Amino acid sequence: MSMVRGNRWLSWSVLGLGFGFLYLPILLLMIYSFNESKLATVWSGFSTRWYGELFNNRQILDALWISLKVAFWTACASTVLGTMAAMVMTRFKRFPGKTVFGALITAPLVMPEVILGFSLMTLLVAMGGIPGFPARGVTSIWIAHVTFTLSFVTVVVSSRLQELDRSLEEAAMDLGAGRLKVFLQITLPIIAPALVAGWLLAFTLSLDDVVIASFVAGPSSTTLPMKVFASVRMGIKPEINALATLMVLAVSLAAVVGWFVTARAEKRRQRDMQMALQDKG
Asked: Among 231, 256, 255, which Cα is nearest to 242's?
């Protein structure tokens, strides 16, 4: 018993050290966002002045708006394209070029962001002379982020589709439902948790990216990570702590909402499965 208790205390100690190493810096950053001093690392009293300074900083607010706009549309486009790619990878067992298609879809997962950003920048420069092709700016960042996050959404949705019971779709088609109706009323509700998870993952990756955006951004399309990185290079400012605190709270709220939606959809799916089994029995 003493050995079991010793191993348990050791496990909890290692777990506590690991979580402390990960989250203690974030907690200190949030505490120092209420620091009165202009020095971000020297505590001189409680104050919320830097939140007011943050909301009066037009450059940071503009960069935040660009990042949120790009991240939202990136997540939407990546979810749609990733779902289509996942359907192709899981529903069509064999077709010409499937190996190459799968390799191209999953390549951004293992490719360094520097290489991906440089290659996209080269492509944009080479195609810049084409009439109607977007110049380097918000649109080019959106295209680059969709290319980067598409593979993550495809992997998440593919794993859910592989676990899907095909007999439910076959039963619906036997009753006269078309493929589109089956997808909208059967497949889509079942894979909804994976779609939400993929959307949130793509949104977070796009909002957090600084390497790829640095290659493809234009002079008037600075994203928030690029602005923060440029500010930190010249010294940590208290406004950055306030901004980071608000971002942590926003991400935490989004994670809780996403978890609630996913759990609710999963419970609904399990309830429908039990009802289907009872009717079948």
From this structure: 231
